[in-house]
């Protein structure tokens, strides 16, 4: 690994990769043995102005890599004796995080993403500075529900990171921005880095423009609500200093013993997959001990990897998402190809499980699975229905996992290398499952295992039966509504009266009106979720949809039930009675889905 070789390799890898992925620009930094080996800019910081990326001065937004600065600040206060990793976090704050099963949240759980918080998205990323608020106000008004027992389940949480930063504010009596600047940036000489929002005027000219795609129009500056979780703006040269400090046992930031605790206190929940450390997470590859972090805003995408024993750090950041989110595979390929080029594989050869046993284990994994990073108490829970991971077996008896895809988007090919541990044949990824009482209850894949796992979807939430019935129900309700005006036009053409009176006529009209309103409300939900900007600007619409849903969905079931009752009492044909029954079942199905997946949760804290 020399500067000349790394530069030559990057020159061959990066320009074509950026163009292929439709990414505007990137910065790549490699440090080794306490020095910058190379730092390179590729592509453009601003396409329209033809401003190239300068690794010394161009600021990128590393997204959740920002968390490493927050975790470093926490560990400084652990070192100072002001924070106890295993104490109730409520001891440090001026409001209360509710207990879960009688137990509090601890800082260790926060740093390992096992505090149990559900996913929280409101005011996470936005482009209007009017929604900026103080850190204290954010953490107090945005408390997510705790849906897991503390320490039991990894569930990535931006909110928890903001909470940790608020603890640092409380114990140091300094604002988070001031603390980071004085205790981390200043000692390391990171003179062009900032968490502040809006970004200082002196730094704004250095900021790379963000793009959804290089071929698209530029986007606005992104503001991060939980700022300590992702608001950093920093050039590659400054990030090199941060990597060197951590590779040198926290030099300038932490005592060696504190740094070792931060870097090598893993939480093992699903062996042998990669694990969370205290803030960092393992990205082990080729038998090497590697810790790091990934970061994603809507526009910027970043990775930081530290090869601890080799004293090598790799940092990369991109200012575009790219065509079909092409930056994701690009980021992964850059890390894996770097590791394969410069670090001989020291891992033990994979074993094999006999074909009969492997087939049995594969069948045990089949089903629908829920991502642990999910919401349950608000409308975000609809994602639990629409984005379930599916595991199946192909015609050759091989494992098919919807959540596991290669850099070219194809499904990974898995082979079992140890009991309930599978390897991607064409890559480094492993998949491992947890077995309880002879049943697989949880699994994950190396790339996400430190902070997300998949738990089996209960039958009551399985998309296998819910989605087909829901689609059929919407079709029945739509046809029921459309039949109303169509039949009226036909009767008018033939001057034939509607042969219903009294309650029968009311039920006829009511059930069709209810069907139309139900379809309209579901359509409104679809449009709202598709266009949602998670800010208070959408609160009124969300309240209207939830209150309207309570009236329409419940009312639709009542009307459909009344209509079926009248249809069975009157001398209607078998088809009329059957259709009335189908309308009732369709209305019940819609209500069940809305209730189960948060469309009637009556909250705008999401």
Topology:
Blueprint: H1 3-21, E1 25-32, E2 35-46, E3 51-52, H2 67-79, H3 107-111, E4 125-126, H4 135-141, H5 158-172, H6 176-188, E5 223-224, H7 236-247, H8 256-263, E6 281-282, E7 290-296, E8 301-307, E9 312-318, H9 327-342, H10 355-365, E10 367-371, H11 383-386, E11 389-393, E12 399-401, E13 414-418, E14 421-424, E15 430-436, E16 439-445, E17 454-456, H12 463-494, H13 502-531, H14 539-569, H15 574-596
Antiparallel strand pairs: 1-2, 1-9, 2-3, 4-5, 6-7, 7-8, 8-9, 10-11, 10-17, 11-12, 13-14, 14-15, 15-16, 16-17
Helix pairs in contact: 2-5, 2-6, 4-5, 12-13, 12-15, 13-14, 14-15
Describe this structure in words.
- The protein has 606 residues and is α+β, with helices and mostly antiparallel strands.
- Helix content is 39%, strand content 15%.
- It has 15 helices and 17 strands.
- It has helices at 3-21, 67-79, 107-111, 135-141, 158-172, 176-188, 236-247, 256-263, 327-342, 355-365, 383-386, 463-494, 502-531, 539-569, 574-596, and strands at 25-32, 35-46, 51-52, 125-126, 223-224, 281-282, 290-296, 301-307, 312-318, 367-371, 389-393, 399-401, 414-418, 421-424, 430-436, 439-445, 454-456.
- It has an eight-stranded antiparallel sheet with strand order 12-11-10-17-16-15-14-13, covered by helices on one side.
- β8 (301-307) and β9 form a beta hairpin.
- α12 crosses α13.
- The radius of gyration is 27 Å and the shape is globular.
- 45% of the residues are buried.
- The mean pLDDT is 97.
């Amino acid at each position: 690994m020399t500067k000349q070789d790394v530069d030559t390799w990057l020159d061959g890898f990066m320009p074509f990769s950026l163009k292929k992925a439709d990414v505007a620009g990137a910065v790549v930094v490699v440090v080794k043995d306490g020095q910058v080996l190379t730092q390179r800019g590729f592509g453009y910081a601003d396409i329209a102005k033809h401003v190239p990326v300068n690794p010394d001065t161009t600021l990128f937004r590393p997204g959740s890599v920002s968390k490493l600065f927050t975790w470093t600040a926490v560990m400084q206060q652990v070192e100072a004796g002001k924070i106890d990793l295993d104490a109730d976090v409520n001891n440090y704050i001026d409001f209360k995080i509710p207990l879960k099963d009688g137990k509090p949240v601890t800082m260790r759980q926060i740093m390992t993403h096992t505090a149990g918080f559900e996913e929280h998205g409101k005011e996470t990323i936005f482009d209007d500075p009017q929604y900026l608020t103080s850190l204290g106000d954010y953490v107090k008004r945005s408390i997510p529900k705790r849906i897991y027992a503390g320490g039991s389940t990894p569930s990535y949480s931006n909110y928890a990171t903001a909470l940790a930063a608020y603890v640092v504010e409380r114990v140091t009596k300094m604002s988070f921005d001031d603390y980071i600047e004085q205790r981390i940036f200043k000692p390391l000489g990171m003179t062009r880095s900032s968490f502040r929002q809006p970004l200082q005027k002196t730094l704004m000219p250095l900021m790379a423009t963000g793009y959804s795609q290089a071929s698209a129009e530029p986007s606005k500056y992104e503001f991060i609500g939980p700022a300590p979780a992702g608001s950093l703006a920093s050039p590659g040269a400054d990030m090199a200093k941060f990597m060197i400090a951590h590779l040198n046992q926290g030099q300038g930031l932490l005592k060696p013993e504190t740094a070792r605790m931060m870097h090598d206190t893993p939480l093992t929940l699903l062996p042998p997959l990669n694990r969370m450390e205290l803030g960092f997470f393992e990205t082990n590859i080729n038998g090497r001990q590697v810790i790091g972090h990934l970061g994603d805003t809507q526009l910027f995408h970043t990775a930081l990897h530290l090869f601890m024993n080799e004293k090598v750090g790799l940092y990369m950041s991109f200012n575009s998402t790219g065509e079909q989110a092409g930056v994701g595979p690009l980021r992964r390929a850059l890390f894996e190809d770097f590791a394969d080029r410069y670090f001989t594989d020291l891992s033990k050869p994979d074993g094999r499980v006999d074909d009969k046993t492997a087939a049995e284990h594969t069948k045990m994994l089949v089903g629908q699975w829920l991502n642990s990073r999910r919401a349950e108490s608000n409308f975000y829970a609809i994602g639990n229905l629409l984005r379930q991971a599916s595991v199946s077996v192909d015609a050759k008896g091989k494992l098919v996992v919807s959540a596991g895809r290669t850099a070219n988007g194809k499904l990974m090919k898995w082979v079992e290398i140890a009991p309930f541990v599978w390897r991607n044949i064409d890559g480094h990824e492993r998949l491992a499952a947890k077995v309880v009482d002879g049943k697989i209850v949880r699994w994950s894949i190396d790339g996400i295992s430190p902070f997300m796992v998949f738990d089996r979807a209960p039958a009551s939430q399985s998309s296998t039966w819910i989605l087909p019935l829901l689609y059929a129900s919407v079709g029945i309700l739509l046809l029921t509504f459309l039949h109303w005006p169509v039949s009226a036009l036909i009767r008018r053409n033939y001057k034939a009266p509607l042969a219903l009176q009294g309650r029968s006529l009311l039920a006829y009209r009511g059930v069709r009106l209810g069907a139309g309103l139900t379809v309209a409300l579901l359509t409104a939900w679809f449009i709202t979720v598709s266009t949602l900007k998670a800010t208070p600007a959408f609160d009124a619409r969300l309240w209207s949809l939830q209150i309207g849903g309570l009236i329409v969905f419940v009312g639709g079931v009542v009307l459909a039930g009344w209509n079926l009752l009248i249809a069975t009492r009157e001398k209607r044909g078998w088809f009329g009675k059957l259709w009335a029954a189908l309308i009732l079942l369709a209305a019940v199905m819609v209500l069940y889905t809305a209730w189960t997946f948060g469309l009637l949760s009556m909250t705008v804290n999401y």
